[in-house]
Amino acid sequence: MTEDRPFTRAKTGVSHGRRDDQEMTIANGLIRAVLGYQLVQFRIGYGVHLELGNDFEITIEAEFTLKAGEMRWTGDPLTTEAAGALAPVTLKTVSEATIGKDGTLRLTLGQVMLTVSPHPLYEAWQVRGPRGLLIVCSPGGDYVACWAPTPAP
Questions:
Q1: pLDDT per residue as tens, the chain (153 positions)
Q2: What contacts 44, CB < 8 A, 6 or more positions away?
Q3: Closest CA to 127 of 55, 58, 74, 73
Q4: From residue 119, how far is each of 5, 16, 21, 35, 51 by CA, in Å?
Q5: ∠ CA(86), CA(87), CA(89), 5° rounding?
Q6: Which of 63, 62, 71 is nearest to 89 (CA)?
């Protein structure tokens, strides 16, 4: 996409230039760029920032869940508990990355599934990558806005 405006998906059935299924296919195609990247570190400040390799950053600003087998943790990103829950996931590789039709982000890091559902009042998560890649969950998950990366020179 060469325009500097996002394409979006709306639960209401109102399309912003594409049908919902096409938009979700595009969003899920873009999120796949994080596959194979290792969570090299995370930091907490105005949300949790997951740094994947040198190229991608995922910001979580809403309650999230980590699940591995019988272990399950759910909580706010701006807590020491969140840091403790994320520590074992550091240096794990992303093997799955999807965005649900409701705006839920799901990442698998090693054996751990990280899930971030939409927040009713603000953007629950966003993904930033090289050459301007940006994927943002809207408040309430009504749509996911995507800016595709600019072509390499």
A1: 444 545 544 444 333 434 467 778 889 999 999 999 999 999 999 899 999 999 999 999 999 999 998 999 999 999 999 999 999 999 999 999 999 999 999 999 999 999 999 999 999 999 999 999 999 999 998 889 999 999 888
A2: 77, 78, 82, 83
A3: 58
A4: 23, 21, 22, 25, 22
A5: 70
A6: 71
Degrees (nearest 5) of the Cα angle 125, 146, 117?
30
Phi, psi for residue 54 in degrees, rounded to 5: -100, 0
DSSP, collapsed to helix, strand or coil, labels residue 79 as coil
pTM over 0.70: yes
